Amino acid sequence: MTLGKSVRIYLKDGNVSGIKLGEVVNYTIQALSCPRNKISDLNRFFSKEVNRPGVYFLIGEDENNQNKVYIGEAENVWERLKTHDTKKDFWNEVILFSSKDDNVTKSHVKYLESRLINIAINANRYKVENYNFPSLSSLPLPDQDSMEDFLINLKLLNGTLGHKFLENPISVNETKIIDLALTAMTESSTIINSLGNLKLELKVKGVMAKAVQTDEGIVVLENSKVADKTKPFGYSTLREKLIKEQTILKDEKENLYFAKNYLFESPSAAAAVILGYSANGRNIWKDKNGQSLNEIEQTQVSV
């Protein structure tokens, strides 16, 4: 059974674009999110929180408007941020994480930095600005477990503050994926939410693609096929972008395919990019029993 968690957000300026202090209720972790133009206020109003060991994210965009993040650690986060304010140009927001107590040390934050860089690279949502990849620092086993628990809440706060670059769109090894049985459809209207993500397929005129429906959208899985020919359609720019950045590649026979998992916001966007023309993804994406997403949703709400 998964238990819920309570997150408390304090808006220092009374609005969502200013400084935000985030906490997971009953845990010692705390997060501070701050736009770059207000960075001097961090030490002014939150001196205790920023002048201690912690990890931080510098978040911004590159010249191609692609999101990117720099991940760092420091024994005194505020002193490190003052250096970055003069030497790094790309970022427009910083999020830093520390502990309310004094039990998180320099060794702990070095461990966290290494883990966070690895997690962000594997998630592949933002470009990771780091050029040095520190090795995992050696910690006693109890401290490792404590930091892994810290990471769980760090990811939770980071996502709550609007950034999901630590969240893997889908991990087949870690995420429970289900094949929705016809018999189960009539038994519970909450089967998808209670059991996991829904495995789907697209089969149209020789094009075969596999995907998983998640809370964020639909993740087209690695090695899914893509039609070679296209017609004018609304997602042509996105398709060209995916080809340019090599998310979609050609095999030795010049056939297009997905080189890695990719998250789409809607089933129709995924279907259009794959087929090369506009299509209603809720009718085309189906489970192993041949039921479309529309049919599955209608069955759910009718129970």
From TrEMBL:
<dbReference type="Pfam" id="PF14267">
    <property type="entry name" value="DUF4357"/>
</dbReference>
<feature type="domain" description="GIY-YIG">
    <location>
        <begin position="51"/>
        <end position="128"/>
    </location>
</feature>
<dbReference type="InterPro" id="IPR000305">
    <property type="entry name" value="GIY-YIG_endonuc"/>
</dbReference>
<dbReference type="InterPro" id="IPR025579">
    <property type="entry name" value="DUF4357"/>
</dbReference>
<protein>
    <submittedName>
        <fullName>GIY-YIG nuclease family protein</fullName>
    </submittedName>
</protein>
